[in-house]
Amino acid sequence: MPQEAPAQLALSVGLRDDATFDNFHNVGNEAVLAQLDEMLLADPVAFRYMLLWGREDSGRSHLLQAACHATAAAGKRSVFLPMAELAAMNTEVFDNLEHLDLVCIDDIDHVLGRPQWEEALFNVFNRLRNHARMLLISASGPAHALSVDLPDLASRLAWGVTYHLHPLDDQEKLQALKMRARQRGMELPDEVARYILHRGSRAMSGLFATLATLDRASLSAQRKLTIPFVREALGWS
Fold first, then answer.
1. How far apart are CA 192 and CA 198, in angstroms?
2. Which residues form the Chromosomal replication initiator protein DnaA ATPAse domain (predicted)?
3. Quick one: 194 and 150 in the same domain?
């Protein structure tokens, strides 16, 4: 595979435009953002690695994509590898990653317990270390709790700084939903936000997708967000 493959793969996988540090609701996760900022701004004189773990809706994927956006803004190269989508491919997706400044591997659980993938990931660690690159991994749990068969990989996963992402409670989800609405230029009354939270998806990704749908619907209909309009636009009975 040619050296350009990681950049091409990043384009084919794609990053969400709204996955940035600015719109990440960081209550309880301030230390994580500070550490990520320090990691991304540090001089590239040594290998830097961080493991972020938490529930599926804890913002793991958001932060990895935000790190890629920040790296691109600094004029550097990165790749976002969502293993939930790429696990069906072969391990060549890990080739030549040492030529990039930042490698973000999301949902690593999807390839653990598979010998070829574990060996390939072990080799990624070694190549990125040898080239003083940055590696950011997300998982469902801390390194010691992951189902890793290859002892050398288990050791590598425990190398770096590990952060548990704080899950949002309902009040924090409301705040995050209203913050995202403001960023989209939407007026989201408290009672409408509460209705969306209790009637729709509980996951933040689902809530934000609902908000995007309502944004388009309200612009098209030239109507404000009210509970009757939300019910009509989303087909909720």
1. 10
2. 16-162
3. no
